Amino acid sequence: MTLPPAFADWFARSGWQPHPHQLALLEARRDTLLIAPTGGGKTLAGFLPSLVDLHGNAPKGLHTLYVSPLKALTADVARNLMRPVQDIGLAVRVEDRTGDTPQSQRRRQRADPPHILLTTPESLALMLSWPEAPRIFATLRRVVLDELHALAESKRGDQLMLCLARLRHLAPGLTATGLSATVEDPQALARFMGASAVIEADPGPAPDIALLPTRKPPPWAGGGGRHAVPDVLEAVAGAKTTIIFLNTRAQAELFFQAIWAANDDNLPIGLHHGALSREARHRVEAAMAEGRLRAVVATGSLDLGIDWGDVDLVIQVGAPRNIKRLVQRIGRANHRYNAPSRARIVAANRFEVIECVAALEAARAGDLDGEPRGPGPLDVLIQHILLTACAGSFDADALFAEVRTAGPYAALTRADFDASLDFAATGGYALRVYDRWQRLMLRDGRWQLRDPRAARELRMNIGTIVDAEKLKVRRRGRGGAILGEVEESFAATLAPGDSFLLGGQVLRYDRLREMVVEVTPQPGREPKIAVYSGLKFATSTRLSQRMLAIIADPARHAALPPDIRQWLAMQARISALPGPGTLLCETFPRADRWHLVIYGFAGRNAHQTLGLLVTRQMEDAGLAPLSFLAMDHALLVTSLEPVRDVAPLLRLPGLERGLEEWLADNSLMKRSFRSVATIAGLIQRNRPGGRQTGRQATFSGDILYDTLRRHDPGHLLLRATRDEARRGLVDFDRIGDMLARNSRIELRRLDRPSPLAAPLLLEMGRVRLGGSGHERLAERLAKELMASAGLGDLTDG
Amino acid sequence: MDEGAAGYPLRFAGLDFVARPSGALWWPARRVLAVADLHLGRSQRYARRGGALLPPYEVADTLDRLAAEIDALDPARVISLGDGFDDGPAMREIGNEARDRLDRLAQGRDWIWIAGNHDPEPAAPLSAHSLPGRSMAEIPGTPTFRHIAASGPDISGHLHPVVRLAGRNWRCFALGAGHLILPAFGTYTGGLAVTARPFRALMPQGLAICCAGRMFAVPI
């Protein structure tokens, strides 16, 4: 295809020149992956072939399907797409369809689909589960997969690829186009979506990136970057529009509050994160799009999508954790495609300065990090099989062949497919008791739902995002507004009267009513608690190693700010600096617990594995370990008893012996099992008639895990769980390598946290252990509670 | 006997009981063992309704633990405090292996099924389903054994009490002046926090006795 005159005119009238990659995609005949930076007209590039194809001849029926990871993005793209459609005068119907689309519109779309439909992976999976899916998608010519780099990082991508395989089957000859930001391995992403060609757009000029100079040095630990508020405000005042990224919601809330407390010029600054209500987020997005905001404080919720044309500065507060993410965030500041992106980084504490310096070096060198993808997981396949049955009966051989055309499942074995099908049909248990109640039955050689009514429940549980249960937060009183949501586990820690931050407001927790947290705003008060988890990033292995290289080499300390040099000097004086050949460990008491820190710099996954193995050894040694925290540079273990000699805990044979046993029984495995069992449909999130959280009727996935392990250890879901856990864990060899590299183990016994250890104490995301330590701790807490309630003697008679 | 001493001794309605780590209640003076909410056959019921096909091992698992208590204590009477079965059909479809096990466990003991809200068929002849024991609506007395706490003093189940402490949920006995509520014994059962309204209404003050290797109590 070439650009018809009507389109060339439109570009000219708009004062634009089509980008070379937009024209290249128009000429592409095959499935193609386009890699372009933000602001490169990527979305238009994806749609241009569709619009040209529909130009002058737009037969009834669905022509193009656009899939994006964010609901907000589909609405935004629909708006942007209407511009060329109207300006050029195309008779093309564009609509979006997400979980937010009104029922009446969904019904109409089902009977009479638009030319271009914009949707999410979950809504696509739902549409494919309808019996009329073959009719709706028969006319499909093009599929556009936006932000494919983001989708490919999770099981949503695996599900989308299975759906794409289905679409290719229903509409032979369709062309798929993937749109992605800069990634470390374009060919791998192309294989993932089954594309035979990659187009890489000109990345534009090199970005202008640096640490933001601050008047005050970063604090010793934690801090959330508040020391830099005056400097950030100054930078905001000097730019047109700024996005200020923070790594967690709680940090974003605190930073937002701090920046407003110092905002003497009343610069319009908004807040955007995933825990805010949809209305609140939409307000900020609209204000941003209209240029009414000078800055927005945001989390990963703004990582994707909406192309803020006017953003000319990105400020990353806190270490970026990951070089690729930093580069992608920097790309958000693209005033014009050909202007350099401008980004500044604020280290939240002194340890992060080293990480920031390392990340900046890597970003300038274009040295991106990323883990290779594993094969497509079986839980997603099981959900796909069940949803396929919702659409109608299927032939196992044909479905197997179709599934293998999906990139992540190209190497799927027939045995694994059959086991997945058997799980979907019978539960796949060694004890075969469900003959009468099979979910899928084989009739006349085709598989189908035994009870067609089951389709409703299956459709209600579509998707691969397994979040912590969330509770809505509502202002108390009749018709009180919904303010956002918090994790159920966070809500469970609140007592009436406690206050916390949400949406920049201090809220007092009043009560929990019908699974809604009721609160009263408390303007002007200090929040008691500001911590509710949300997304947490891990520093990549590559970045950790770059950090160790800087720390270990005093000659490179010159690149660090003076206070950091002092800090490392203090670490060297109080304890020691980690360095090659010596594994530095520290112990110290704090808050009634003993802490052990191992500076492995082996990456979070290896530390995770090491944490599980070491705590097992500690349990055996009677040290009552309570929890551990795996960071990228270090492992922190808390226990009731002190570790006096660390070397015996790190002896390889001892660690090896524990490996198989802990693989079976630890909280990480249980967490993985919950996710796997939910996606595979064993644990149902949603049931007709509403949620069941917190009632006697629901029991935890942990019980199912324990029962399966005891009675059916060979079960498919346990295997899928091990596979999943292994992806998050590094094989044992990596730990062996680390120990071999460090021939000397040095244990420093300290009476308080060392400068390097301090930041660890503030990190979230500890893995709790199920051993004797918790029982002893609970017992101790119980005694204290009894004594303080004056009930100590109630049971004595 | 030694095993009888394991657990948490408590006094209720002027009598001595032992809360066992398993979640069962032992009344040494009368050699009575009480368990609440076995919910036998839950996985069958889910499957029958077209829901998820849960691992079909919870009957075996629950009976394993019950058998361990019976072996340890040799009770004269065993009381299931209601919801012994997840529903009526579960009684019919429990399977021969489970029936045989129940038969053996009930051998030489007075075995009483109290009716619950899940299995409200006290009139259904147990023998018709080849199940041992006898069924009753409740066992009146001081204290009364029943499914749902009413006018005390009574010993009941139904609410599945749990307490949240040190970052996790513990099954627990809820002990107030007029009510003693047992944790659910069945493998596939969830829990209701003792801070929830039903408990506050029944026991403005009370104790949660947590099921753990070494049992401990917290105020409610």
Task: Label this structure with key terms.
heterodimer; A: 797 residues; alpha/beta; Rossmann fold; Arc Repressor Mutant, subunit A; 5 domains; 7-stranded parallel sheet; 6-stranded parallel sheet; 30 helices; globular; B: 220 residues; 8-stranded mixed sheet; 7-stranded mixed sheet
Count, helices of chain B: 6
Q: In percent, how much strand structure appears in the residues of chain B? A: 25-35%
Q: How many distinct folded domains of chain B?
A: 1
Helix run count of chain A: 30
Query: How can the largest sheet of chain B be summarized?
Result: 8 strands, mixed
Which chain pair shows the most residues in contact? A-B, 52 and 45 residues
Q: What is the CATH topology of chain B?
A: Purple Acid Phosphatase, chain A, domain 2
Would you tell me the overall average pLDDT of chain A?
84
Strand order of the largest sheet of chain A: 3-4-2-5-6-1-7
- Average per-residue pLDDT of chain B, rounded, comes to 89
Task: Tell me what the structure shows.
The complex is a heterodimer of chains A (797) and B (220). In chain A, helix 2 crosses helix 3 (42-54), helix 6 packs across helix 9 (155-170) and helix 23 crosses helix 24. Chain A folds into 5 domains: 5-200, P-loop containing nucleotide triphosphate hydrolases (Rossmann fold), CATH 3.40.50; 208-365, 3-Layer(aba) Sandwich (Rossmann fold), CATH 3.40.50.300; 381-460, Arc Repressor Mutant, subunit A (Orthogonal Bundle); 470-521, no CATH class; 577-779, no CATH class. Chain A contains 30 helices and 26 strands. Chain A has 797 residues and is of the alpha/beta class. Chain B has 220 residues and is of the alpha/beta class. The longest helix of chain B has 16 residues, at 58-73. The interface between A and B is large, with 52 and 45 residues.
